[in-house]
UniProtKB/TrEMBL annotation, chain A:
Native species: Actinokineospora diospyrosa
Region (Disordered) location: 337-362
Protein name per UniProt: Ring-1,2-phenylacetyl-CoA epoxidase subunit PaaA
SUPFAM superfamilies referenced in this protein's UniProt entry, alphabetically: Ferritin-like (SSF47240)
UniProtKB/TrEMBL annotation, chain B:
Name listed for the protein in its UniProt record: Ring-1,2-phenylacetyl-CoA epoxidase subunit PaaB
Superkingdom of origin organism: Bacteria
Taxonomic source organism: Actinokineospora diospyrosa
Taxon lineage: Bacteria, Bacillati, Actinomycetota, Actinomycetes, Pseudonocardiales
Length: 362, 97
């Protein structure tokens, strides 16, 4: 297969976000300029203040490490568990083309999970530890995944709205202060624009279809709008981790700023689609230069995060079951390697492997 | 849980985008052996035709400089500015030099 230039495949209309990803990548290069030598907290502060990237081998405060592990693991789990609502429609996609597209998208989500697990591993945690934490409920995934995909239109609305929200959030994470996370995000964002775009495309076909198809598209948008808005997390003044994350430049914008950006992006796109965003209070505010809108129901978000959404139990049961069902594959691969190559020789501690210490992954 | 991926070694992945370019490090995968490491690397890192060739190397076989020795290790190169051609002043009008 010929090498294809990703830039050349970029759909019109995605330039703004794509340019931001390109700019973040240039910043990654610029951040690699030499910095003065310092040790401990002083070296860390110098990296953060000087807009350099923190790498796995650098000293970092325990809270920075723990916060990153929490955030990156939650992000990775969201990619992995997030395959479930879409997988629901792979066998029932309306055409072979849509089926192939959905398969490729779900495969990308698995890949994004792997990039992110690799980035988290550079912080000294193992993949198995993260999976255990997910399966035992000590780490979480994004709450929107706990809502069901009831119709084919949900596949389009889910991708347009929740992948759209993810892109808005992740484009800013390309500038995260932690090098492996920022690099993983550059890669994820480039691929995510395909997800976002295919959802818009699937929804556009329905929205231009029969009255029944249009109703289906509208119904899906009605159900996914608020779960997508809630993805940015609680308002800044109620967010547990926001202040520290922003001081450390793990994240660059508040939940509220990103949510506003997302709403402003969606309104004209909904007009093109011919669907109505389900918020009677949604209107342009010329004074602010932004749209006013109704915030998500934060009590609902709290309930869903606490495990009481429509599909929490189903998602976790399925996740644990496929992990157990896949055990024989992992065991067989290990047994085959032992028989034919005398390997795997021994367990590789992630902290110990020189390449991992150098921050090569992600 | 004796055969979980945690027991699988880490492999560093290098991809050559196309003929004429070097293999570049793109990330890492876990796999029990080289063959599966290649498969995993293909599935993870070349889903969009990014590669014409892949290398996988066991991470433990990479010998790396110690980041704490960075200064002592690389400093000696810093005061040899004359290795860069721009160090030398050329008289006006000299070409092809």
């Amino acid at each position: 297969m010929e090498h294809t230039d990703l830039a050349a495949q970029r759909p019109p209309g995605s330039e703004l976000l794509a340019e931001q990803v390109d700019a973040a990548e240039r910043d990654l290069l610029a951040a690699a300029r030499p910095q003065r030598r310092a040790v401990g907290q002083a070296s860390f502060d110098a990296l953060i203040d000087g807009e350099h990237k923190v790498e796995p081998t650098d000293w970092m405060p325990e809270g920075y490490r723990a916060g990153l592990i929490r955030q990156i693991a939650q992000h990775a789990h969201s990619e992995v568990v997030g395959m479930q609502p879409e997988r629901n429609w792979i066998t029932r996609a309306p055409s072979l083309r849509r089926k192939a597209i959905l398969l490729a998208k779900v495969q990308d989500e698995a890949g994004h999970g792997l990039y992110l697990y690799s980035a988290a591993e550079t912080l000294g945690v193992s993949r198995e530890w993260m999976l255990d934490a997910l399966h035992e409920g000590r780490q979480r995934y994004l709450s929107f995944i706990n809502y069901p995909t009831l119709t084919w239109a949900d596949v389009g609305a889910l991708a347009w709205l929740t992948d759209g929200a993810a892109v808005v959030n992740q484009v800013t994470l390309c500038r995260s202060s932690y090098g492996p996370y920022a690099r993983a995000m550059v890669r994820v964002c480039r691929e995510e624009s395909f997800h976002h775009r295919q959802g818009f495309d699937a929804l556009r076909v329905l929205a231009a279809g029969t009255p029944a198809q249009r109703a289906m598209a509208q119904d899906a948008v009605d159900r996914w709008w608020y779960p997508a808005l809630a993805m940015f997390g609680p308002p800044h003044n109620r967010s547990t981790h926001s202040d520290r994350s922003m001081a450390w430049k793990i994240k660059r914008f508040s939940n509220d700023e990103l949510r506003q950006r997302f709403v402003d992006i969606c309104v004209p796109q909904a007009e093109v689609l011919g669907v109505r965003l389900p918020d009677p209070a949604l209107r342009w505010n010329a004074e602010r230069g932004h749209h006013d809108f109704t915030e998500p129901d934060w009590d609902e978000l709290r309930r869903v995060v606490a495990g009481h959404g429509p599909c929490n139990r189903q998602r976790m049961d399925h996740r644990r079951r496929v992990h157990e069902d896949g055990a024989w594959v992992r065991e067989a691969a290990t047994a085959y390697a032992a028989k034919h190559h005398g390997g795997p020789q021994h367990s590789t501690a992630h902290q110990g492997a020189p390449a991992a210490r150098q921050g090569l992954p992600a | 849980m004796s055969a979980a991926p945690a027991d699988w070694p880490l492999w560093e992945v290098f991809v050559r985008a196309r003929r004429g370019l070097t293999h570049l490090h793109v990330g890492s995968v876990h796999a029990p052996d080289a063959e599966l490491a290649l498969h995993n690397a293909r599935d993870l890192h070349t889903r969009r035709g990014e590669g014409a060739s892949i290398w996988v190397v066991p991470a433990e076989h990479i010998t790396a400089t110690d980041p704490d020795d960075k200064d002592a290790y690389f400093d000696p190169a810093l005061d040899k500015d004359f290795r860069h051609p721009g160090h030398f002043e050329l008289p006006e009008g000299v070409e092809h030099l």
